[in-house]
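Researcher: Structure for this, please.
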Amino acid sequence: MTASVLIVEHDPNMAQSIGFLMRRSGFTVRWAGDAETAIAAVRAQPPDLVLTATTLPGHDGHDLCRALRTERACAATRVVFVSARARAVDREKALALGADAYVTKPFASRDLVSRVRDLLEG
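Model: Predicted structure, C-alpha cell format:
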C-alpha cells in the first residue's frame, strides 16, 4: 500500500516542488494551503505523514501540530516541519508540540525523502 503525505504549505510553488518530489518517490500526495484546510483533510482521510510549513495563513504550523496531536483519527500520523526557521528554539518548539522531525530549508531532496521514509518505515 502506498503511503500518503499531506503537504501543508501556503506557497504553491513550494508545495508543487515538494509534491513532485514525494510523488516521484512513490507517495500519494495531497495539498492544503492552510491549517484549517489541513485539519479538514485529516478528518476526512488521515494521511500517514504531514509535511507542514511553520508559517501559514491564519493558524501557523505549531497550531496545526497541536491540533493534529489532539485528533484521535491521526494518532499515528507523523508530522514533519519543513521550515526556513533554523534556530534551535524553533526546532525545539515544534518537537515539544509533538512533531516527529524538523527539516530546514534549503534541504537536499534525498535528505527529505530519506527522513520521510525513515519515519514511515520505523
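Researcher: Any notable elements?
Model: The chain has five helices and five strands. The CA atoms of residues 43 and 71 lie 8 Å apart.
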